[in-house]
């Protein structure tokens, strides 16, 4: 996929939504946003209990799914830290955390942003949320011994699911 490509979405949550890529795929870093992992790396490491993207693979590059840890049903053992670390989508909806045209939340936004979609107002809000999530890294540093990656596994899984380094 290249800048100028238009992608039309047809999955269980959206049908007929289209967006045009206006940046090069992978060109995501700016002064405010420096994700630690690509969506492909996150899927390979184990995020969202393997359930994420089960019906929307056609929207994203096939190589993202070659080694992804996926399951037709949520399976916490597929998470990198082997624990449940997510809330139901209904909680996100009730709290108003679903922003813009991305009904699956932050990770869907990040996947689309990573591909090259740019929506300045939505992007600014999601990047602000990503920056705020970094506070969990501070809590791990303050409460865990260096090298003990099994200390606070839920926070670490959360960091991974927000593309922060959970192995600090």
> Please, what is the oligomeric state?
single chain
Can you write the helix and strand succession as a string?
EEHHHHHH
Number of helices: 6
Strand order, biggest sheet? 1-2
Number of domains: 1
Helix content: 25-40%
Strand share of the residues? 5-15%
Structural class of the helix and strand makeup?
mainly alpha
Mean pLDDT over the residues: 91
Query: Given the C-alpha coordinates, what overall shape results?
Result: globular
**What low-confidence regions span 5 or more consecutive residues with pLDDT below 50?**
none
Strand segment count: 2
- Please report the distance between the alpha carbons of the first and last residues: 33 Å
- Gyration radius from CA atoms, angstroms: 16 Å
Largest sheet: 2 strands, antiparallel
């Amino acid at each position: 996929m290249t800048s100028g490509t238009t992608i039309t979405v047809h999955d269980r949550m959206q049908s007929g939504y289209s967006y045009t890529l206006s940046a090069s795929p992978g060109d995501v870093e700016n002064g405010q946003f420096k994700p630690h992992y690509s969506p492909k790396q996150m899927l390979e490491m184990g995020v969202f209990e393997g359930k994420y993207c089960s019906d929307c693979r056609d929207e994203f590059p096939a190589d993202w799914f070659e080694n992804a840890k996926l399951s037709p049903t949520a399976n916490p053992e597929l998470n990198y830290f082997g624990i449940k670390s997510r809330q139901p989508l209904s909680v996100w909806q009730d709290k108003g955390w679903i922003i813009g045209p991305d009904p699956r939340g932050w990770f869907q936004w990040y996947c689309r942003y990573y591909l090259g979609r740019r929506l300045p107002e939505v992007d600014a809000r999601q990047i602000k949320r990503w920056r705020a999530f970094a506070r969990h890294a501070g809590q791990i540093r303050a409460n865990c011994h260096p090298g003990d990656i099994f200390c606070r596994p839920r926070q670490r899984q959360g960091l991974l699911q927000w593309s922060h380094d959970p192995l600090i």
